[in-house]
Amino acid sequence: MLTRPISRLMRSIGMTGPLPARMPSKADAADARQYIRGYWPSLRRDQPDDRSDLIGLPYPYLVSSYAPDHDFDFNEMYYWDSYMIAQGLMNSGHPGDQELVEGMLENLLHMVRRFGLVPNGSRTYMMSRSQPPFLTSYILEVYHAYSKDDAWLAERIEVAKREYEHVWMGKRKPHARQVYKGLSRNYSTDMTHDQAELESGWDYTPRFQRHSLDYLPVDLNALLYKYEVDFSVAAGILGNLSEVAHWHHMANKRKRMMNKLMWDRRRGLFYDYDYVHKRRSPVSSLAAYYCLWAGLTTRSQAAAMVLALRRFEHPGGLTATDDIPFPQRFIGGLPTQWAYPNGWAPLHWLVIRGLDRSGHRRDARRLAAKWLRTNLEWYGRHGNFLEKYNVVEPGRPPASGVYPSQTGFGWTNAIFERLCRDYIDR
User: Fold this and answer.
1) Which residue segment(s) compose the domain that 88 sits in?
2) What digits encode the pLDDT tens for the residues 325-364?
3) Beta carbons of 56 and 50 less than 8 angstroms apart
4) Count of domains in the chain?
5) pTM of structure
């Protein structure tokens, strides 16, 4: 295929503008959406009691993927997967979806109450680490989507505060995450870099140079900024005015430090910060756009970040990182699937939502169209969706990771359905 050489040629002669993409029609997407609707039951699990290393949960949940002829199988519930899957089910109008959305949230809260954290997944051997924290976003979205009362909100926000303070703002083992100037890192109780990188959700990536414990991730701290803003919003709803001011102060304090350490004005992007060596990561990544999604960017920063999209944008969508030298795609022998040339559904969702929130709706729509077409074209040829896609050469398989490539796939299906509702149905 000529996609990649043409893309490089365009950049070399200054043609760096975004490649156009036509938004699919309802008819284009109809069969794929029916496939997704029929696929959800195969992902449903009901595990009320502990069994071997599988943690019992009070409500049914959806796992990431299922293929009957595949050796690699999922039966556990994952933290940020569940939030992303909920995006495709929330307010869908289909019977049973609300029960699943609320049940998965209650399962996450149950694990905080029982263990003090949400594990990476609902397995005892995953208890040493968590995953990207979306609990406050999940709570407030359910509160608004299903018109919950204030007592419901107050109870669940208190659980999220417990997670925030105990896990993400912990200063010593078993939660030694807040390590430098009020900012937090990913962590694992076994104190290994690779296990801490698993907590980032990007398993694995060149972002941290195989030294995850040394880095303050921009996406994690943007998520914690969002927690602080959400606590302020919830306090306002509940009439706790002193708490509104406290959480507003905490959010602004984090934003100031992130701007000081992570914002690179010359490159127009936020970067992970290596607090051990006092330097920013050399790797540009879509983790920066969590800041846009969380609402912590200024107008000028948002405009610069829109221009920076050209580093990631290709015919099939956005790569997780910019183009890196080939040897870096196998750091220490580990294949880095969260990197060029792969694109991922949750990262597209966060970038698109961030662009829309900051007023760059045309860019959001363009990227939604590209991502939907990449998913549809693969589905048209193979009859399924993938965990990740090669967005540089969309007809080719994605670069592999440390586990076999998955079909299905929970968050890909969910984000596809949500983008269809937001950009096609409306």
Assistant:
1) 47-168
2) 665 566 666 789 999 999 999 999 999 999 999 999 999 9
3) yes
4) 1
5) 0.93
